[in-house]
Amino acid sequence: MTFFLIFIVIIVVIGFYVVSLYNGLVKLRNQVKNAWSQIDVQLKRRHDLIPNLIETVKGYMKHEKETLENITEARSRAMGADSVADKAKAESELNGAMSKFFVVVENYPDLKANQNFLSLQEELTSTENKISFSRQNYNDQVLFYNNKIQMFPSNIVAGMFGFKEEVFFEIEEPKEREVPKVQF
Prior knowledge:
With 184 residues, the protein is mainly α.
């Protein structure tokens, strides 16, 4: 009888431990989803600001139609991306298009003094900072979640219940211009 009681207690303790690990994994998975939704909110805000920025500069930049079209196309691809990896690639392309845009803007002093443009540029800069912070938070949550899935003993519970690794949100930053070589 004592052996049976000890066996039941061990089974109950193991059961509580498995439930605890499972609940911890669910909590981490939900934190990753929440962190992703924070990025998504900021990306939507950014995508909403871009058409306003383009409309503001159209009158000034009549000869820069290709630059504005590139931004519009990159924005469309970014808005249509589904997976984290696709979003990261599309957002990287959008970052590159926006970088080229702001280089071109330097040639238009009247535009740089326009209050609407300055306001939109400030909002976009603020949004970029929020995206960067949200991306860092998301990647931290993914790291913690993926570590938990891969480490013993929670990896056993994760495998039993189908928990899958999440993908990091990594954007290639626009490449800096190469420094020209000076030869004498």
